[in-house]
Amino acid sequence: MSEYKERHENEIFTKVLKAGRRTYFFDVRETKAGDYYLTITESKKNFGENGEATFEKHKIYLYKEDFKNFQDMFNESTDFIIEQKGEDVISEKHDKDYKSKSYTLESDEEV
To answer: Which Gene3D superfamilies does the UniProt entry name for this protein (predicted)?
Structure first.
Protein backbone atom coordinates (compact mmCIF):
# COMPACT_ATOMS: atom_id res chain seq x y z
CA MET A 1 0.00 0.00 0.00
CA SER A 2 1.40 3.43 -0.88
CA GLU A 3 2.30 5.84 1.92
CA TYR A 4 -0.22 8.39 0.55
CA LYS A 5 -3.10 5.89 0.50
CA GLU A 6 -2.23 4.55 3.97
CA ARG A 7 -1.95 8.07 5.39
CA HIS A 8 -5.39 9.10 4.07
CA GLU A 9 -7.23 5.87 4.86
CA ASN A 10 -6.82 6.44 8.60
CA GLU A 11 -8.41 9.94 8.45
CA ILE A 12 -11.85 9.82 10.07
CA PHE A 13 -12.84 13.49 10.40
CA THR A 14 -11.27 16.78 9.25
CA LYS A 15 -11.96 20.46 9.95
CA VAL A 16 -10.05 23.34 8.36
CA LEU A 17 -9.56 26.84 9.78
CA LYS A 18 -8.16 29.43 7.36
CA ALA A 19 -6.52 32.37 9.11
CA GLY A 20 -4.67 34.71 6.73
CA ARG A 21 -1.43 33.08 5.57
CA ARG A 22 -1.96 30.26 8.06
CA THR A 23 -4.28 27.29 7.75
CA TYR A 24 -5.01 24.94 10.65
CA PHE A 25 -6.09 21.35 10.05
CA PHE A 26 -7.81 19.35 12.80
CA ASP A 27 -7.71 15.70 11.74
CA VAL A 28 -9.13 12.76 13.66
CA ARG A 29 -7.17 9.65 12.70
CA GLU A 30 -7.28 6.01 13.62
CA THR A 31 -4.45 4.00 15.15
CA LYS A 32 -3.62 0.49 13.98
CA ALA A 33 -5.37 -0.74 17.13
CA GLY A 34 -8.60 1.03 16.09
CA ASP A 35 -8.53 3.93 18.57
CA TYR A 36 -8.75 7.61 17.57
CA TYR A 37 -6.31 10.47 18.09
CA LEU A 38 -6.14 14.11 16.93
CA THR A 39 -3.52 15.81 14.81
CA ILE A 40 -3.40 19.59 14.65
CA THR A 41 -1.37 20.93 11.73
CA GLU A 42 -0.41 24.55 11.14
CA SER A 43 0.48 25.25 7.51
CA LYS A 44 1.96 28.66 6.72
CA LYS A 45 2.38 29.88 3.15
CA ASN A 46 5.67 31.63 2.41
CA PHE A 47 7.00 33.13 -0.79
CA GLY A 48 10.63 32.84 -1.87
CA GLU A 49 12.63 35.55 -3.60
CA ASN A 50 11.61 34.02 -6.94
CA GLY A 51 7.93 34.34 -5.97
CA GLU A 52 7.46 30.59 -5.61
CA ALA A 53 5.14 29.52 -2.80
CA THR A 54 6.33 27.07 -0.14
CA PHE A 55 4.52 25.73 2.90
CA GLU A 56 6.00 25.48 6.39
CA LYS A 57 4.17 22.86 8.46
CA HIS A 58 4.07 22.08 12.17
CA LYS A 59 2.11 19.17 13.58
CA ILE A 60 0.92 18.14 17.06
CA TYR A 61 -0.30 14.63 17.81
CA LEU A 62 -2.80 14.60 20.67
CA TYR A 63 -3.99 11.35 22.24
CA LYS A 64 -7.13 10.79 24.30
CA GLU A 65 -5.27 10.39 27.58
CA ASP A 66 -4.01 13.97 27.19
CA PHE A 67 -7.25 15.64 26.02
CA LYS A 68 -8.45 16.86 29.43
CA ASN A 69 -5.10 18.34 30.54
CA PHE A 70 -4.49 19.87 27.11
CA GLN A 71 -7.97 21.41 27.06
CA ASP A 72 -7.58 22.76 30.61
CA MET A 73 -4.20 24.36 29.86
CA PHE A 74 -5.39 25.70 26.50
CA ASN A 75 -8.45 27.31 28.12
CA GLU A 76 -6.42 28.69 31.03
CA SER A 77 -3.84 30.19 28.66
CA THR A 78 -6.36 31.74 26.25
CA ASP A 79 -8.46 33.08 29.15
CA PHE A 80 -5.31 34.70 30.60
CA ILE A 81 -4.53 36.42 27.27
CA ILE A 82 -8.10 37.74 26.87
CA GLU A 83 -8.20 38.93 30.52
CA GLN A 84 -4.83 40.70 30.18
CA LYS A 85 -5.12 42.14 26.66
CA GLY A 86 -8.79 41.91 25.65
CA GLU A 87 -10.10 40.45 22.41
CA ASP A 88 -8.86 43.21 20.07
CA VAL A 89 -5.77 42.27 18.07
CA ILE A 90 -2.79 44.43 18.98
CA SER A 91 -0.32 44.71 16.10
CA GLU A 92 0.77 47.27 13.56
CA LYS A 93 -0.83 45.30 10.74
CA HIS A 94 -4.22 45.40 12.44
CA ASP A 95 -4.02 49.12 13.26
CA LYS A 96 -6.59 51.05 11.20
CA ASP A 97 -3.97 53.77 10.53
CA TYR A 98 -1.15 51.30 9.74
CA LYS A 99 1.36 52.44 7.15
CA SER A 100 4.24 50.26 6.02
CA LYS A 101 7.68 51.27 7.28
CA SER A 102 8.92 51.84 3.72
CA TYR A 103 6.06 54.27 3.11
CA THR A 104 6.83 56.09 6.36
CA LEU A 105 10.55 56.37 5.49
CA GLU A 106 9.78 57.70 2.02
CA SER A 107 7.35 60.22 3.48
CA ASP A 108 9.93 61.37 6.03
CA GLU A 109 12.62 61.76 3.38
CA GLU A 110 10.44 64.02 1.26
CA VAL A 111 9.87 66.45 4.11
So the answer is: 3.10.450.700
Condensed to tens digits (0 to 9), the pLDDT of residues 20-55 reads 889 999 999 999 999 999 999 999 988 888 888 889
Question: Kindly report the CA angle at 24 between 65 and 31, in degrees rounded to 5?
Answer: 35
Q: CATH for 1-70, among 3.10.450.700, 3.40.47.40, 3.40.50.2000, 3.40.50.1100?
A: 3.10.450.700
- CA nearest to 60, candidates 31, 40, 42: 40
pLDDT digits (tens, 9 = 90+) for 63-108: 999 999 999 999 999 999 999 999 988 876 655 565 555 444 444 5
